[in-house]
Automatic annotation (TrEMBL):
<dbReference type="GO" id="GO:0016787">
    <property type="term" value="F:hydrolase activity"/>
</dbReference>
<dbReference type="InterPro" id="IPR032582">
    <property type="entry name" value="DUF4916"/>
</dbReference>
<dbReference type="InterPro" id="IPR015797">
    <property type="entry name" value="NUDIX_hydrolase-like_dom_sf"/>
</dbReference>
<dbReference type="Pfam" id="PF16262">
    <property type="entry name" value="DUF4916"/>
</dbReference>
<protein>
    <submittedName>
        <fullName>NUDIX hydrolase family protein</fullName>
    </submittedName>
</protein>
<keyword id="KW-0378">Hydrolase</keyword>
Amino acid sequence: MTEMAELPDEPTGWLSDRELDHVRSELPLVYVNVVPVRINSMGEVTQVGLLLRAFDGSISRAIVAGRVLYHERIRDAIVRNLEKDLGLAAMPQVPLSPTPFAVAEYFPSKGVSPFHDSRQHAVALAYVVPVEGHCEPQQDALDLTWLSPEEAASDEVAGDMAGGQHVLLRQALAHCGALQ
């Protein structure tokens, strides 16, 4: 009989690049996809924040996205990923309920769903989160642009987004009543 390796008391949630590649090849991973927005006093979306990222040798617009770490609450993953991409001064207003407006299934094979990620099979819980503070692109984000809901939902912006995120963006805006 083989013994199981002991886990550390408080797992860090981080894997080495080699371990992450192996896990991605064997299991779907849980992510959060977050559409950062600015709202007015009536709770209406006035602006949508889109990142400019370099990924897989191309540059595209993107929403905030990141893994949910082992032993991490969804709320904490939302805040951590927003702060990772928009900075510590973003001041996200985490939703009262951790219920997503959509669930996006990303597959490494194109055509299975509208969502594609060549690295892995991932399940992403999608949220619209108002941010009130100063936002600056961080880490691998090259730029952050604030667009009106109409601009964000345009075919031009959809053409600048990869992996089907434009579908999720339009779903987010429809969910908020920001599309006419």
